[in-house]
């Protein structure tokens, strides 16, 4: 038997510590394995079977150095793309549909193909492969506005831009209704010589207004007719011609006209009733660059995505490199935070606001209370005599009845009565179906109350019965009245079109909000514009009793986007030498931040709208035409920004299609990008960023800074005066963000302000958002105490070991 040695005391301590650490490690690993096992059980791919289902993938490639002679304009580019399929495809080739779906050459280096997961993995090993992802499906973001925006005949921006003459607006949407009177080419010049597009309609259907129309929906070989209405509405909002006497159900009567009435329209059909496929969107953007458009308008989007995984962002970057301005809708997922689509800084991200027109339908209760609402259907023969008023939502047995969902009112006696219905009820309960249900069971009329999130934002719809949509607050008061009496009654007073709402523009409830998820250091949305109850052309009559050319009134950021696309066309016509970034800057720095009542712009709850709802503010086209200073950007300026976001070299090349290595580029923080706004995450230490402005106003001019510091911080700007002696002269200034650190608050919160450069009539305003991370004194002392205790424990252990 060998000698037994005794473990020294200090070694036993070490072993005990190691033993405890080992137990912690074992428990941690056991939990990790358990979690992983749960994930495996939940995963449909864990059954050991090969997943050979074919999906359409967007495949991004870059031309390798070994293929130097291959260019994006080469005739054999498609053959090179095809070689990826030839080497990767291992399954039977008996598929009826071709594997190659699309090839791209302008906005994307790559192609779309039907592949299995295994084939994509095989492709990853090939030279030139960058990445691939399954294509996404994006939803659509679905008269008086020129006057509302200050555009008038023979004066101002319309006169100075010649109504957008010579500019081509490309719209990616649901197609177009050719022959609509809004698309008449009376007074239109022929398209500019640079136009290279084509028209898939029969001869004579396209003209000098509608100069191009193509269908990019894969497998759909029909002409790009608009079977939904969305595309016709957005196109004519951007650039429809003058049409007198336009109305919907006799409401909103006046002259319908788009933002840029002499601009040309090029239509790219990429959406149907099922949505918009990414591969089709990229194909249309690819063609639009070739065709020679000046502005691209996309009223669609699929939520927040990293730029290198967002086909729209990648395509828009390439368009921007070619000098094309890209305007996109922000999305209809408001009023919740961080719900934006189309967040890239080279895209104008457009939120939605109200206008000062209403299609009034006032609810009058039996107790004399009156509540203004809206309805597009305004029957002239509706008797103003009060009728019994009922609310089916008081029944606990059938909760769907409160929403007047299809079939939900069958057991209720509503014949000859006015029915109070609630908005919402789920994705399968549509607004217009509520009136149909009331009509089906014999109801005389409907009051539709907003959901809480919708607040005071009211949409005008063509309901199947006489109706009024009222605010959430009004709806609750109507409910209280019903509960207060045994015989509630009401009527609806239809007052037609009214103007002059001084609270306009206001941010509507559905407009998606920031901050951006992908890049919080870029303030989004950029701008808001008219998107509520907008009248524009429609393929078919909404009112079957009216034989006039059809129009419709609808709402969405889909409607605000083409307003800004048309305004961008006006600015491009007025300033043909301006870059897309300069146009965006002009729009943002001249935006209005007050309503017609000269009070801060409000939101759907009648509260002051925050910066993540309004962006820079509400568009002011005339001011944007003469902004004084602009924050300009060249395409290469985005590379340090992308590298600063920690994208890989291949991801940056995928976006920019340039030979980029981030190791050879000095990355910059997001807030350092020369953007017309500031979004800063501020901790204990001060931060500083610079901006460069270009003088596009008067040659000899002096600008003085005006600062409104976000509460809780100090802003310092140097120099405080910018002096210019010539047009296009540049100047740089530095902004320091200095935390106060008063120790009274703890945690993170946002604070907003602005920086404004003022010279005579010029006011160049940049909104400022700061996320402040503050620490209370007690929190700080607690951390110090913790560190002291840890250090003390370390000293004790060292003492035991010595």
TrEMBL record:
Keyword Cell inner membrane: no
Cellular compartments per GO CC: apoplast
Active site, UniProt feature: 173 (charge relay system), 230 (charge relay system), 558 (charge relay system)
Compartment(s) where it occurs, according to its Swiss-Prot or TrEMBL record: Secreted, Extracellular space, Apoplast
Residue intervals of the PA domain: 387-478
Domain Subtilisin-like protease fibronectin type-III intervals: 672-770
Listed GO biological process terms: proteolysis; response to symbiotic fungus
Regions that span the bilayer: 12-35
Organism superkingdom: Eukaryota
CDD domains per the UniProt record, alphabetical: PA_subtilisin_like, Peptidases_S8_3
Keywords: Apoplast, Glycoprotein, Hydrolase, Membrane, Protease, Secreted, Serine protease, Signal, Transmembrane, Transmembrane helix
Domain Peptidase S8/S53: 164-595
Molecular functions per Gene Ontology: serine-type endopeptidase activity
Domain Inhibitor I9: from-to ranges: 73-141
Stated role: Required for arbuscular mycorrhiza (AM) development during AM symbiosis with AM fungi (e.g. Glomeromycota intraradices).
Family under the similarity heading: Belongs to the peptidase S8 family.
Name by which UniProt lists this protein: Subtilisin-like protease 3
Organism: Ziziphus jujuba
Lineage: Eukaryota, Viridiplantae, Streptophyta, Embryophyta, Tracheophyta
